[in-house]
Amino acid sequence: MEDKYKVLLEQGKALQESGYRFITPTPESHKRVLERSAGQRAATSRDVFGWNRKFSPKDSQKLGISESVLQELRDQKFITHPNQQSGDDLLRSDIRYSSARPLNDTPDAKDLLFVHSGYPTVQEDSIFFGPDSYRYLNFLRDKVATLRENFSSVVDIGSGSGVGGLFFKDVSDEILLTDINDLSFQYQLVNTELNNVPKGKVFQLKSDIMKQIEQNKQFDLVVSNPPYMVDTSRETVRAYRNGGGDRGIELSLRIVRESIPYLRSGGILALYTGVPIVDGLDVFSEAILKELYDNKDLESVHYYEIDPDVFGEELSTEVYGDVDRIAVTGLVLVKK
């Protein structure tokens, strides 16, 4: 971990000790919550590191930020002074910490904690965490972790904050986190330590899906929650959001096709993705399912609709002009 990011670990541990918990909503919900309390200053650590409300540096200690950590967060530009020209002293966090339930979701189990980009996630290299992350983890818990008790090797493709791979920290021997976003690797290292993953268990690799992974490498489990939208909101495409191809499905198709050769016998591929539904037809399943059912190397293929309708606001854009709805789906393959 580069020195710059060590302060994120220190602040995260302080939040854990204080009992901090924050569930990240959709950007639209986040926007509306802030709008209805416009001008309200942060009163809790959740306000600072969850809602990203502004706060006075004079209040930092009661908000769970020590004086030395605040200075370091400011020095490293994780906390900024957005309205310097206005003459006020109000600061704002440009990072968030979000909670998630662990794989072993018993009443006494402690939350996982992940640091990621602040609201709004407008930068090209933003590290995303939100409702898709929660649906993704529930899918992995319900449809994948029930298939076997332990995985010797897990790879999380397009891992972002590391949430998918680190979710299996207690039932795996080795976790490989891949991405094309250099910033993600620093956040992953913070999240690895925040969640007490044993040293030597997590490895990182900059890779376009499987291209940079050794060809003879085999995994028990491949998981991925890739971008699945077409990023129409900005001139600069945000990698965490843009799935490419026909209404965002290209990356998901590539992950399925390129991952199967890397599964050992009995290995599992679990893909969580979003798909456009056009005239009642699932564009992603139409493109891939028959190919998978005909694949004699696969023991089983299961496809689930997890949420029938997300990102409804995108239907007003030109690229989704013929789409009925955008559904979230899960695909689970087992290799013979």
Task: Name the features.
336 residues, alpha/beta, eight-stranded mixed sheet, two-stranded antiparallel ribbon
Describe the structure.
- It is a single chain.
- With 336 residues, the protein is of the alpha/beta class.
- Helices cover 26% and strands 24% of the residues.
- The chain is built from 9 helices and 12 strands.
- The strands form 3 sheets. Strands 5, 6, 7, 8, 9, 10, 11 and 12 form an 8-stranded mixed beta sheet that branches.
- Helix 8 links the parallel strand 8 and strand 9.
- The model has no long low-confidence stretch (mean pLDDT 93).
- This is Release factor glutamine methyltransferase prmC.
Give a short synopsis of this structure.
The protein is α/β, with parallel strands linked by helices and 336 residues long. The chain has 9 helices and 12 strands.
